[in-house]
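Postdoc handover notes: sequence design on the structure in folder B. Input tokens:
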């Protein structure tokens, strides 16, 4: 009897020990966390030493307690941010539990001194939460200079030009509204950010010497010539819009146009006196029926095409430099024209018309053997109309289509220095005096008067 009692007592101790040792693993949730935000944005403008605090919530949506193994401020002690998680301070915290269906508050403070410093327009960090071996992140972002900041907002009226504008996410123009951007406005866009015109009107009204500039929000010299820092300017079924005297550089697609309002016969975009350069993919991308008129434009050093037309659309380029010289992964011509798009997802080919395909008095040149290519599908229901005159074009072999007239094939334009973006040329260049005066326009991209009788090909007039 005593032996039986001893054995039962020993067995009870063993069972109790096992239960005790497994208690936490049995009752802790295997789930992860959720958060009230994915990005905590501080929209305070800092012009002197500044400090502000924001908060978010950390949720345990499970019935069981969840254990957060690690919480780490990724920037560490050098971060301008500091965190307080449920009363605990530090850049690294461990073993914090949240009971089932409960939550914790995270308080985040940021302190900046932007005086006499070169900072990115937006300063970022993140907080890493490791739960059950899985890492989750909440991003932190703070405006780093005195500017107008746009974070997924709708815009109309006129932007002031006394301070830069910074776009984080998107700045949108909504249907049937108008946004005017004045001369001298500097616009900085964060990674993947976009200026998005949805069925509205965008008027960018720069002037000579007081251009409107678009570039990434990193101000360090290292980023001066880095492409792909943001997406670009996007027009979707837009009403007639204008870009005059702008510099659009270092994005992904400088100007991207998708379709147009079929009830409006005019151009979706009139683009004049503008430089579009060093974008990761396209300078001007016309897709699915948009309509563009461009004069006195320099479009150069983009990763793929200076001009791409896909699934149809109309274009009229006059006195423009449509140049290659890009450093993209794909070796592609400066100008690519197609009236179709293969939608492999739905196993269908979409075909569109090109009712106006004009290029006059322009340079199409670069490092490739051929800098212009057409890939079109004829169809009884669509129109293909091209008219290319008085241009210098690099192409091998020379094209024999009857829509080319007075073309200077494969002549080196003798630009002064492509590496420094000096696209002027000597009097010995074939560009000199060979534009068509009947198709010319009065001044060049620099405001210089063109010859009435023998103007020059391209965006620049030789003085």
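Designed sequence:
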């Amino acid at each position: 009897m005593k032996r039986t009692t001893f054995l039962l007592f020993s067995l009870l101790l063993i069972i109790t020990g096992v239960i005790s040792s497994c208690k936490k693993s049995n009752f802790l949730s295997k789930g992860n966390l959720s958060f009230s935000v994915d990005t905590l944005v501080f929209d305070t403008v800092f012009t002197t030493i500044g400090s502000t605090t924001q908060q978010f919530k950390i949720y345990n949506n499970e019935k069981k307690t969840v254990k957060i193994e690690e919480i780490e401020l990724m920037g560490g002690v050098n971060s301008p941010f500091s965190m307080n998680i449920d009363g605990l301070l530090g850049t690294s915290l461990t073993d914090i539990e949240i009971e089932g269906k409960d939550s914790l508050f995270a308080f985040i403070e940021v302190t900046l001194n932007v005086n006499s410093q070169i900072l990115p327009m937006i300063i970022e960090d993140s907080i890493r939460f490791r739960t059950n071996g899985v890492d989750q992140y909440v991003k932190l972002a703070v405006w780093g200079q005195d500017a107008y900041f746009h974070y997924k907002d709708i815009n109309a009226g006129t932007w002031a030009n006394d301070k830069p504008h910074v776009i984080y996410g998107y700045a949108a123009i909504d249907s049937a509204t108008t946004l005017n951007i004045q001369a001298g406005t500097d616009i900085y866009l964060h990674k993947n950010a976009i200026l998005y015109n949805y069925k509205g009107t965008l008027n960018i009204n720069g002037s000579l010497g007081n251009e409107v500039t678009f570039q990434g929000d990193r101000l360090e010299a290292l980023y001066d010539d880095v492409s792909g820092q943001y997406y670009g300017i996007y027009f979707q079924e837009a009403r007639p819009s204008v870009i005059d005297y702008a510099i659009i550089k270092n994005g992904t697609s400088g100007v991207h146009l998708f379709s147009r309002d079929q009830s409006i016969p005019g151009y979706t975009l009139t683009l004049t006196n503008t430089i579009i350069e060093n974008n990761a993919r396209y300078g001007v991308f016309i897709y699915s029926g948009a309509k563009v008129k461009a004069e006195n434009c320099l479009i150069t050093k983009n990763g793929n095409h200076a001009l791409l037309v896909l699934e149809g659309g109309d274009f009229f380029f006059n006195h423009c430099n449509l140049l290659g010289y890009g450093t993209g992964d794909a070796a592609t011509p400066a100008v690519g024209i197609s009236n179709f798009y293969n939608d492999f997802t739905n196993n269908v080919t979409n075909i569109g018309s090109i009712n106006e395909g004009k290029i006059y008095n322009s340079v199409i040149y670069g490092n490739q053997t051929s800098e212009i290519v057409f890939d079109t599908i004829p169809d009884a229901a669509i129109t293909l109309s091209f008219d290319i005159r008085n241009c210098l074009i690099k192409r091998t072999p020379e094209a024999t289509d009857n829509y080319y007239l007075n073309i200077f094939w494969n002549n080196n334009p003798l630009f002064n220095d492509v590496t420094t973006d000096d696209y002027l040329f000597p009097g010995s260049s074939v560009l000199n005096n060979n534009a068509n005066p009947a198709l010319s326009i009065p001044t060049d991209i620099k405001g210089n008067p063109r010859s009435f009788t023998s103007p020059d090909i391209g965006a620049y007039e030789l003085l």
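Context for whoever picks this up: Residues 2-27 form the longest helix (26 residues). Don't rerun without checking with the PI first.
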